[in-house]
């Protein structure tokens, strides 16, 4: 019997847009604010940001979406600095996310790929570790929403990738078996190994497009124009 792919799911950060570059711009804007308001310079800023993240992780736990909540992190930072929460906590949150999102651009070829998948009758979904509000804002800014059939965030699933629950919820929303789904992401641990343990097929997205020893056995693409070749490879390997 011929296998077919009914649904393709994409990670968001560092997959459909360059989170790493956008985060640097956002952190620079936040650093500028903290320099003006609190007199923090580069080394001190980095130390307080790191301490605040550790504090937030200790309070929320690292295996849930709340660990990504920048408002909680900035609240922790202000507590450490003994600075007032109002108006700074939400202003820091707004500066960070507004800057990051406005700096984000869709990866080359992702819009065309999603459109092509939809034209072929394939369900197009998102599976992401993060809070829902922020991820919806990113997708709207990237102008990809019209091609997306469903979204699963770790906030909704209650568990973070690489936990199976998030991937199984993705398949459930698509009315497909996990083996009829492909998950595309940049993280070998969270996206690829997580998806495969849940019974999904997986394609690793790396801009260089080079397969390393660690990714052997998993199709790797550095350009979304090569997705369908990778999908064919998935089908051939699975028999």
Keywords for this entry:
51% helix, 10 helices, 6-stranded parallel sheet, alpha/beta, 239 residues
Any overview of this molecule?
By secondary structure, the chain is an alpha/beta fold. It is 51% helix and 11% strand. The chain has helices spanning 19-38, 42-60, 70-81, 88-103, 110-119, 132-141, 154-157, 164-173, 188-197, 227-238; strands at residues 7-10, 123-128, 150-153, 181-185, 201-205, 220-221. A six-stranded parallel β-sheet has the order 3-2-1-4-5-6, with helices on both faces. Helix 6 (132-141) links the parallel strand 2 (123-128) and strand 3 (150-153). Helix 1 runs antiparallel to helix 4 (88-103) and helix 2 crosses helix 3.
Order of helices and strands: EHHHHHEHEHHEHEEH
* Backbone CA Rg: 19 Å
- Shape category: elongated
Number of DSSP helices? 10
The structural class is: alpha/beta
Largest sheet: 6 strands, parallel
Give the distance, in angstroms, between the N- and C-terminal Cα atoms: 9 Å
Instruction: Trace the largest sheet across and list its strands.
Output: 3-2-1-4-5-6
Please report which band the strand proportion falls in: under 5%, 5-15%, 15-25%, 25-35%, 35-45% or over 45%: 5-15%
Helix share bin: 40-55%
Average pLDDT, to the nearest integer?
A: 94
Number of E-type strands: 6
Q: Poorly predicted ranges (pLDDT <50, ≥5 residues)?
A: none
